[in-house]
Known about the structure:
11% helix
Amino acid sequence: MKVLLSIIGSSCALAFSPAIQAQAEIPATEKKAAAPSSVVFYGVLDAGVTFVNNEGGHGNTKLDTGVMEPNRWGVKGVEDLGGGLSAVFQLESSFNLDDGSLSSQGTMFDRVAMLGLSNRYGQLTIGTQYDLINDYVTPFNISATASGYASHQGNFDRVAGNAIQRSIKLASADFDGLTFGALYSFADKSAHPDENDSEGAGSGTAWNLGAHYARGPFSAGVAYMRLNTPRGTQAIGPYPSLGLTQFLGQPTFAIDGGSGERVPLKNMAIDSQKIFAIGAAYDMGKLTAMVNFADIEFRGYGQVSDLRLIEIGGRYHFDAALDGTLGYQRMHFEGTKANQLSLGLDYHLSKRSDLYVSADYRRASHGVDGVIGNSFAPSSNSAQGLLRVGMRHVF
């Protein structure tokens, strides 16, 4: 922790040192020669139909959007301040394509809302932004390339790509194939600061370190993150995510007195969550092979549990228009295990539009309700399968 704060403090000192400030005070002659501000508007649209074989004992066909990639739009820009220094910003919002509503009710820019400075050594940004697991390890989540439902189960390792609020992030430039960074997130003191229950209390502090290396056909990334009292957008919901009926010795759902149905607990009050994630890839031309591993430690209710997950797979480039991806995951947690296989075919209509079909099958230990991702109700048994056909457009 002291090392992280020292890195961030040194970066702040560098960014706002007299030398840097002097660079920011651009002479009039240099202002005329400086490049004008550039602003880019961008986004992703994803929609399709999914059939799942078992949700609570029944099959279901549904229109599901934002699956292969979240539906989102954003704007980002850079201003040349002269002397090698630039101001940068980014705003990004996710939404539901089926009804046009915001993905996070009451929050406009739920994915990214950041401002910062950059130079040839790196970038220092403040706000809501993606963590370093997203930057350095998420690219090796091969199953998610096959199917948008196949990010690591429950996404407890945050490999699906997550933003974190109230954060300061330092990301280095590329030094001969090596990039690295550090992030610190401040505690949420605004939401019910005097409450200590799982629904009311705000999240605590968090910190994150990571690095990535790429040289020739080989690339690898690693990250470590600690979340203290994760709540809200960082909350733990083991039943809808993993199908577990017990978590750290606690029940993961309540029984509705009227209907008798299971009501999942979506915000369990744990003390901390520690994440170690690492991944690697090797490009052999038409085939790119990938592997990754994650270890997540949960502490709470006087107990400690570790979730471990390993994933292998590859992406094959058939021709200019068609790609195929196969991924396999194996997970161990609290005496249970689960295996998941994901297959995807992606047909490119153009550089910005594609059609895809994907299939997933997951089988868990006896007594664990099978569930894929967080988009479905758990199965009535230990297995769940799905088939999806969709379209994506990038602008």
